Amino acid sequence: LTFGLDTVHAISKITKKLLWVHLMTENPASWAIKLALPAGSIVSFHPESTSEISETIARIREKKWSPSLAIKPKTTVANISEYLHLVDQVLVMSVEPGFSGQRFLDSVT
Q1: Would you put residue 3 in left (φ > 0), alpha (ψ -120 to 50) or beta?
Q2: 39, 16 in Cβ contact below 8 A?
Q3: What burial class does residue 26 get, using C-beta atoms within 10 Å of its C-beta: 0-12 exposed, 13-18 middle, 19+ buried?
Q4: DSSP string, 22-33
Q5: Within a 10 A sphere around the Cβ of 65, how many other Cβ atoms?
Q6: Which residues does residue 44 pair with via DSSP β-bridges, in sequence order?
Q7: Which residue, among 24, 2, 102, 3, has the nearest Cα to 70 in the 3D structure?
Q8: Among 7, 18, 67, 101, which residue has the fewest nearby CB atoms (within 10 Å)?
């Protein structure tokens, strides 16, 4: 975890701004239910991290947050097309998830 639940909760207590949380975890629904964020905040997750994509989106919406799918550079939009009507945005990553300091992949644009 780059920032764990405690850090996210602490930040949400001291700001009135909406937060954007990018869950780079297995089983993102189980993490989403543990979050305490202001309504309207954005919660992104990777569709590859769960077999329950629609259910995860529903859990995020139940909390009054904005669901977002985060896709890896090599993931095509066709892979997530059946979910596009359920989310408010798609985050197209410009590096492969996993470690910092990577170079921007021009092919993403």
Answers
A1: beta
A2: no
A3: exposed
A4: EE-SSSHHHHHT
A5: 23
A6: 22, 68
A7: 24
A8: 101
- What CA–CA distance (Å, rounded) separates 100 from 84? 28
Q: Which amino acid is at 77?
A: V
Alpha-carbon 30 to chain mean position: 13
- Indicate if the alpha-carbon torsion angle 8, 13, 15, 16 is positive or negative: positive
Compute the distance between CA of residue 88 and CA of residue 33 in angstroms, rounded to an integer.
Answer: 19
The alpha carbon dihedral of 23, 28, 34, 36 has a sign of: positive
What is the reported pTM? Answer: 0.88
pLDDT at residue 19, rounded to an integer = 94
Tokens found for residue 36:
């305490």
